[in-house]
Amino acid sequence: MTLLAMGSRSKHIRLADKYLVLNDTSTTYIDPDTWTALKDPRVEYRQVNLNIASNLSKVYYHPRGVSYDIVFDFTGEGIGQPDVPEELLLERTAKLAKSIASVSLRRGVKAHIRDTVAFNTVDSNAPPATESDAIKSKGARGCWWSAEVVGPFVFYGSIPSRYALGKVYHYLGEPMKLLWGPDLRINTIHVDDWCPAAWKLVQWISSRPRSEANQLAGEDLPPVRIKDITQDSLREKVGPECCPRSDTPRAPVFNLVDDTDLNQGKLLRMIGESFKIETGFVNAFINAYARVDLSGAADDITEKHARAIAEIVQKTGIDNVALKG
């Protein structure tokens, strides 16, 4: 949105999200560049619950009575929360994505870009995955986030958050250790690379009919197999808001990733060099505990991090930060 406002000839940009943004206050962290963009007279911010059908339709009402040319869909729950209930993922991710796409279709939107994260399990020694590869889904998020059009391989907050923890462990005077191991891939893409790629995709998809786009870059999106007793009840809840499981839709799919081939070992080495701290990985016992109860392990360490972050914020006097206790 910031680049659209500052570097394009867009006549009107509407940003719809769940957070309260009013004047210079917000219920979520907003960086200075985004605040500047929000003050642009072409930009309209609207706080809205898109899960309500009437709200979703109103978001598409253009002030000049025309249709929007471009829609970017970034909706979905559970990016940083592996234990989000499946019912919530179904309602606020899978069904919502279908609803938004349906309105875009009715409104004649020229380019509807759905961005999502690929929650997939890939072996550290496996070659890079292609758009057509059938990859094992990683947990419930892999089931309900699977219909992607543009997919960076890792959610946006992981790298900045881990770098921030470098400062935390420098403050604590302790080694920084991560779960799992150095070969775990965390392939990334920077926002400065993602934005021009997404804009190129807008130009590409809006300049040709859907049939041609599917022929050039279309991939089948088969239904994720729902199994085990826990998920049996979800079969009845899918409903008409989702694509019928008997169908296999086809859409242009693009994976976006940079060429660093980043893994945990490389990242930890960079953090150690930046903050002059000792780094490494936890022992097999802690890894085993995390596999059994990842949420519990995360809660334990988060409490420690939160206390340290609160102390750092208090001592530095820097209050406007993205991550604090």
Tell me about this structure.
Helices cover 43% and strands 14% of the residues. The chain has a two-stranded parallel ribbon with strand order 1-4. It has a two-stranded antiparallel sheet with strand order 2-3. Helix 11 packs across helix 12. It has twelve helices and 14 strands. It has a domain of 183 residues: 3-Layer(aba) Sandwich (Rossmann fold), CATH 3.40.50. The chain is an alpha/beta fold and 325 residues long. The relative contact order is 0.11.
Percent of residues in helices comes to 40-55%
Strand tally is 14
Strand order of the biggest β-sheet: 1-4
- Computed over alpha carbons, the radius of gyration is 21 Å
End-to-end distance: 28 Å
What letter string, H or E per element, gives the SSE order?
HEEEHEHEHEEEHEHEHHEHEEHEHH
Low-confidence stretches: 139-156
CATH homologous group name of the domain at 48-156 and 188-261: NAD(P)-binding Rossmann-like Domain
The backbone outline, from C-alpha atoms, is globular
Helix and strand content put the structural class at alpha/beta
Count of helix runs:
12
- Looking at the structure, the CATH topology of the domain at 48-156 and 188-261 is Rossmann fold
Mean pLDDT: 80
Major beta-sheet overview: 2 strands, parallel
For the record, the CATH architecture of the domain at 48-156 and 188-261 stands as 3-Layer(aba) Sandwich
Strand content: 5-15%
- CATH class label of the domain at 48-156 and 188-261: Alpha Beta
